[in-house]
Specification:
- The chain has 17 helices and 11 strands.
- By secondary structure, the protein is an alpha/beta fold.
- The strands form 3 sheets. The protein has a 7-stranded mixed beta sheet with strand order 1-2-3-5-4-6-7, with helices on both faces.
- The longest helix has 24 residues.
- It starts with 7 loop residues before the first helix and ends with a helix.
């Protein structure tokens, strides 16, 4: 996959925002280990679905009948707060939602409802209600707008705006949303609504993908401006500039649990050496690693190669073109530090992100590993019917780089992926109608399947 220039608007927009993410560090090793173990549960559709009773209690807070719609507001306790009470504070543990239904459905057998998940910085209900839900309501499609953990009504008092304090917070957020979507989808089924769907923009699109993977029936999925993993967002996208890498590096080196336990558990799903060396369609092999390990490389292995290079004169890995493939082989011609620098996630970003300090490489690769472990779609079940998936991606997306990562078309055969000539911010501004039309299109597909 040839690299696409990053949108300058994405770079400028991110620089304007002064918020910093993960200012308190990784989260405790015990917390991360618990979340890694839980990921293995919720990534299995059957096990995840069975975590939530079908008649899970929902409290209706308010009902309002308007001339053009009915609005229902409700809340419930997030199931993750029951499974992991030590990780979920009370302010985060209560889920709030707003349901918007048309006054009249298109037909008695077609009552489509779509859950809208929040993108970064999308607090409360008003933005999704006005930008997405109301236009869809005119098409006869209802909406459920779910408040994000750590946002709006669920924001901890000590958190500044949307800036999650710990890396582990984003995994707690994902676990909460997956289970909460199951509750809301089950509730819709009980109300006789359907077909059902889930959508979101940016981070909301990725969370929607995780939620849809755990629903045991065909479901509409329209992820907008997201991709197959969140690892590139934080290691090479413009968001990576909002992270205090020195702090994360210091914490990583200070506690051996990150290095000796967690770094060996989490897996980098896509071959990191492929990132900036050649198009993704070429095959790669790495001498010294069994063929079966090519798909999953731990940060620990990468960092061991760095240490070996720094402490010995042993032959190092270089790059060579063969007849049908491109391979890595033993040679003294290219130091591995140079190779890793060239293949480093940050080297894939726009020119203003030139190099990361050598002392921060451990934090960088560990971040890539933990993000892949908990967010890569290859680690989750494939949605039941991929023909109901329509994804929209921006070709010059500076927030969600795609180079060197698995394509959605490959992970979900049969899914439709639309690419727009825009960056992340400009696509959000100019292509919202495409997002809406794609949701309508996906529900029309679901309608035809139900006939």
């Amino acid at each position: 996959m040839p690299k696409t220039p990053v949108s300058r608007l994405d770079v400028i927009y991110r620089k304007i925002l002064l918020t910093k993410f993960f200012s308190k560090g990784w989260g405790s090793p015990e917390t991360l280990k618990t979340l890694f173990d839980f990921r293995k549960v919720i990534s299995n559709r059957e096990r995840c679905f069975n975590l939530v009773p079908k008649n899970y209690p929902i409290k209706i807070i308010n009902k309002e009948q308007r001339s053009d719609c009915q609005i229902i507001e409700g809340s419930f306790t997030s199931p993750l707060a029951l499974y992991m009470p030590s990780l979920i504070t009370p302010d985060v543990g209560t889920a709030y939602f707003q349901m918007i239904l048309p006054t009249k459905w298109p037909s008695t057998n077609f009552k489509p409802v779509c859950i809208h998940l929040a993108g970064t910085g999308d607090h409360f209900f008003w933005r999704r209600r006005n930008i997405m839900a109301k236009p869809l309501l005119q098409k006869g499609i209802g909406a459920i707008i779910l408040e994000n953990p750590y946002y709006g009504l669920r924001k901890p008092t000590e958190q500044v705006r949307s800036s999650l304090r710990y890396v582990s917070d984003i995994f707690v957020m994902g676990g909460c949303l997956v289970l909460e979507c199951i509750i809301l989808l089950n509730w819709c089924v009980q109300l006789g609504l359907g077909p059902l769907g889930v959508t979101g923009i940016s981070m909301g699109g990725h969370m929607a993908s995780l939620a849809a993977s755990n629903w045991p029936a065909p479901i509409v999925l329209v992820p907008c401006l997201s991709w197959s993993t969140a690892s590139t967002v934080f290691t090479e996208g413009v968001m990576s500039e909002s992270i205090d890498w020195d702090l994360l590096q210091e914490e990583y080196l200070a506690d051996k649990s990150y290095q000796n336990i967690l770094s060996k558990i989490c897996k980098i799903v896509d071959n990191p050496f492929e990132c900036s060396i050649a198009p993704r369609e070429n095959a790669f092999t790495l001498l010294g690693l069994p063929e079966k390990e090519l798909t999953y490389i731990t940060p620990h292995k990468v960092l061991n190669l760095i240490k070996e290079e720094a402490t010995s004169n042993c032959p190092t890995i270089a790059y060579k073109h063969s007849k049908d493939t491109k391979k890595f082989f033993l040679s003294k011609d290219m130091p591995i530090l140079n190779l890793l620098r060239d293949a480093s996630p940050l080297s894939l970003s726009s020119k203003y992100m030139t190099e990361m300090k050598n002392r921060d490489k451990e934090a960088l690769w560990f971040m890539k590993g933990v993000m892949d472990e908990c967010t890569h779609l290859k680690n989750f079940s494939v949605p039941v019917d991929t023909s109901l998936i329509i994804a929209i991606c921006a070709k010059a997306d500076g927030y969600v780089p795609r180079h060197g990562t698995s394509r959605l078309e490959d992970i979900w055969p049969g899914a439709t992926v639309k690419y727009v000539d825009a960056g992340h911010v400009s696509a959000y501004i100019w292509y919202r109608q495409l997002f809406i039309n794609s949701i309508v299109e996906a529900f029309e597909r679901a309608k035809k399947l139900s006939i």
